[in-house]
Amino acid sequence: MKSLLSITEAAHVTGKSRSTLHRHIKTGKLNITTDSVGVKRIDTSELLRVYGELQNVTRETNVMIQDDTASYYENEEKIPDATREELELSNIMLHERLREATTREMFYQEQIKSLTEQLGAVQSKILALEAPPKKGFFARLFGKV
Q1: Is the pTM of this model over 0.70?
Q2: What is the pLDDT of residues 47-71, one digit of tens each?
Q3: Less packed terminus of the chain by CB within 10 Å, N or C?
């Protein structure tokens, strides 16, 4: 099963040029992995994430991708209970942090709204103070202050 592709193979499967793939790797849009030999490869799941459905998938490539997906789910069942518990605990902690962050964001949004209203009131008072005093009838008539 071949889930890690070379840049040339990835370019063929995605329909993109090698230089485009290199540019996306350099900018961080596309992640690469290193295989057991130390050669940089691109995982097919990463190509699917970035580019969506793959264009030039041959029957052999498609079978390999499907086999890799099936083996991933088979391996998921083999996760040790201790690791599974750690992952579940991490998941609970992340949900709690997300809830706290959401609460903080709502609090800050309310503060922003309140301060914006206060700023508007202060600005209108400043504009009222800066307005020139009205001239009286004779000052307007004769041009005197």
Answers
A1: no
A2: 888 887 777 666 555 545 555 555 5
A3: C
